[in-house]
Amino acid sequence: MHILIIHQAFASLNEPGGTRHHEFARLLTAHGHQVTVIASPVSYITGSAFRASVSSEVTEYKVTILRASVYDAHHRSFLHRIVAFFSFMLSSFWVGLGVKNVDLVWGTSPPIFQGVTAWVLARIKGAKFLFEVRDLWPQFAIAVGVLKNPVLILLSEWLERFLYRRADRVMVNSPGFLEPVTSRGAKRVELIPNGADPSMFDPNNDGMEFRRSNQLADKFVVLYAGAHGMSNDLEVVLDAAALLVDRNDIQLVLLGDGKEKPALMARAQKKDLTNVTFLPSVPKTEMASALAGADACLAILKPLEEYKTTYPNKVFDYMAAGRPVVLAIDGVIREVVEAAGCGIFAAPGSADEVANAIRQLAADKKESRIMGLQGRDYLQKNFSRAAIGEKLLGLLEDLRSK
To answer: Counting Cβ atoms within 10 Å, is residue 153 exposed (0-12), middle (13-18) or buried (19+)?
Structure first.
């Protein structure tokens, strides 16, 4: 089967960002499928060009990646990002026309507009259309306040329902998305959850290289790894850091990039938060070393009802690395962490609870270590990328036979 993936924010293992699709793509090629990906030449995380002079490449896993031109709107306004999404929708369609003998077109949202490209290409090529929902858009954009115009909201909701109804199959990465997607018209919905590849992480690595290079050797390190955007509520982390200034043995490390990062750094400097370290994004190939250098890891989102539906990728990476989780996200991901016994829940939006959870983990490092290993064991049994990949293979085979 030749599978064409339309994914503006696609990232390989040697690039910053979520690598769910790269990991799936190499699994598919290992099982004899042909995979072509159309992606942006600009990193959605850092805004840097991946390969300025190369429009196509074939990875060592025989995945073909085609780069379609895009309007560069890195960390600009919502309007600029919408223009960037539309530019990729059009350029990826043009590039996709040249991809031959396609059996299935896989569109992934957000941004939802590339779903339109995938649907049109599937119809033109007589291929199956698989539509993947990674976030509930436009609901999340409305909830966080970036999408306010009533006309745009109506058009976005119409487009969402249009794609759900026309997909041969809708795939979601969290059980929290099943009901919202089916209620908006999706006929057949499959859960292929987020997870992690435990073989990428060594829970016994003490991370001393990472710690020494960032002056963290004698600290209890709490690491946040991910986007620094308005949804991530990292202002609360800075408030928690202010509550922890009496503990000079605890260091909060914020690793990643995003629109809000300059403001966060300025705020930390203004408040003289010397217990906060900011680090740039790293490729997935370097994430294992970063997580190994942490004593605990942090996942946080704004206290919105909509975010209770999410399965954040970073939590599964933390579990695979064998590190306990401070979880300031309620809902379905809380159920995973509590079932695994691998972390402490802190009410979203509460700096006091985040700070108290960190104090609790730092006070008993042996128990924290046990929590982390429990998380890795639970992930290996329930959320390993290999097992999830087998489910994906079954879904694709079922689609092919219809």
So the answer is: middle
Type of residue at 111:
P
| CATH architecture entry for 198-382 | 3-Layer(aba) Sandwich (3.40)
Domain-wise residue ranges, the chain: 2-195+384-401, 198-382
- 2-195+384-401: CATH architecture: 3-Layer(aba) Sandwich (3.40)
For the chain, the first-to-last Cα distance in angstroms comes to 14
Please give the chain's pLDDT, 402 residues, in tens.
999 999 998 888 877 778 899 999 999 999 999 999 999 887 666 666 655 444 667 776 789 999 998 877 655 666 777 788 889 999 999 999 999 999 999 999 998 999 999 999 999 999 999 999 999 988 998 998 888 889 989 999 999 999 999 999 999 999 999 999 999 999 899 999 999 999 999 999 999 999 999 999 999 999 999 999 989 999 999 999 999 999 999 999 999 998 899 999 999 999 999 999 999 999 999 999 999 999 999 999 999 999 999 999 999 999 999 999 999 999 999 999 999 999 999 999 999 999 999 999 999 999 999 999 999 999 999 999 999 999 999 999 999 887
